[in-house]
Every structure is written in structure tokens, then in C-alpha cells.
Design brief:
5-stranded parallel beta sheet; 5 strands; 12% strand
Length: 140
Amino acid sequence: MHCKVTLDTNILISGFLFDGICKDILNLGITGKIQVFTSKPIIDEFRTILETKIKKEYHINTTVIEDAVAIYLNFSGIVMVSDKPRKNYTPNNGDNFVIDTALISDSTYLVTGDHKHILGKVKMPQLEIMSPADFMKTMK
């Protein structure tokens, strides 16, 4: 059985834009080596960041954005999360949805680059929260 993984939006953005560890993690999902889970709030945040910040900064068009979202949805299982997070795990509401997604999907790992709100700050016995580099070490 493949491990279940929830990816924070910062991993998605980095993985779709740049070569490196985050792209390697996305490729594990694309090739079916890991089982990736998402939810509407993560999808919406991914699309919004692409449309507002990334589109202008990297001069990409709407078709490229929709293709990125479609690729992500193609290799991700979608779980239903509430309109309000079940708990305030962090002061950042968007991060609370990511954590809810990981818990509801029964993910083993939540991969994030968020040192400000999540990494080293949120601890859960049923979920390993780790950086992309630490996650890739577990995949070897």
C-alpha cells in the first residue's frame, strides 16, 4: 500500500513552478508511488495563488493555470472538509484546512514548507508533519 500524503499549497506551487524536491514529490503522486489527498479549500487556495500572484509574476496564462489544477486533481483524491475547520490548530485558517484534510484523509504525512505556522509548531500523534526534504528521506 502506498503512503497517504497531504501536500500544503506551498509544496504545490513550488513543485509546479520549479525543479527540485517539491517537483520530485509531485512526480511521486503523478506516478502513483504516493497517494495524495486534497480538499476544496486547498484546491481553491492553489488556484487563487496561481491566478493572483504567480500569473503576474511569471507571466503565465489562464490555460497554464487550469492545466496545473487539472494535473493536480488527476493524481489526488478529494476529501470533504467542513466550511469551518474542526479545530484551530494554528492561527492561520488556511493551514487549519490543510491539517483537517490530512486528518480526514487519514494521511500518514503532511508535507509543508510552512515554518511560521506548522513545522515544529503543530504536533499530532496520528500525523507526521514534515518538510519536503525530510519527506523525501522517508521515500528512499
